[in-house]
Design a protein that fits this description.
alpha+beta; Double Stranded RNA Binding Domain; 6 helices; 188 residues; four-stranded antiparallel β-sheet; 2 domains; 4 strands; DNA polymerase, domain 1
Length: 188
């Protein structure tokens, strides 16, 4: 298969093809369908990826397609996350945390609440590199809001172990149970 020089596609199976372009470039391409939509995912030039690697790559993305997820969109998101982690701002890490946990929350309102809490209450931390955000910085955000609106404070407290390569970076001394928003009626 690697010796093909004429423009066209040589199938390997499972939608994997060696694609030779009109200008002679050779690359691995995977063709698949997602619903009624036909998609084409380019893996790498032939010189950069062996047939075994191309098959493994196809199998990895095919598993996502079987779950009903678009592999091209997933790869885009994966690359975007990698770019964000290279920059690694507090805001980007917080957004990644929300996306990573979104599926585990009971409903979409939780994701909205998390997003709003982190974006509004921790707005001044969002542009800062994550390695420059210390316990004092997070406490400076949490302490003023903790008594008034405990839900965002607990969300921000709970999110901080999600920082990459820095588990439990912020050793916050906030109560695990926040006080109720309203005082209960007096017992009669």
């Amino acid at each position: 298969m690697g010796w093909q020089k004429e423009p066209g596609r040589s199938p390997d199976g499972g939608g994997l093809y060696l694609d030779v372009t009109n200008d002679g470039r050779r690359r691995w391409v995977w063709l698949y369908r997602l619903g009624a939509r036909r998609r084409e995912m380019v893996f790498a030039p032939l010189a950069d990826m062996t047939l075994a690697e191309a098959r493994a790559e196809r199998d990895k993305w095919r598993a996502l397609a079987r779950e009903g997820r678009d592999p091209i969109d997933a790869r885009r998101a994966e690359r975007a996350r990698a770019a964000v982690k290279a920059v690694a701002t507090f805001g980007a890490v917080a957004d990644d945390y929300i996306e990573a946990h979104r599926a585990s929350w009971k409903n979409a309102k939780h994701a909205t609440n998390w997003t709003n809490a982190i974006r509004s209450h921790a707005a001044r931390l969002r542009p800062r590199p994550v390695d420059q955000v210390g316990t004092e910085d997070v406490l400076a955000v949490l302490k003023p809001i903790r008594a008034e609106i405990p839900d965002p404070a607990s969300r921000l407290r709970d999110a901080n172990p999600a920082l990459p390569d820095q588990p439990n970076r912020f050793d916050l001394e906030l109560p695990t149970e926040c006080p109720p928003r309203h005082n209960p009626p007096p017992a009669s």
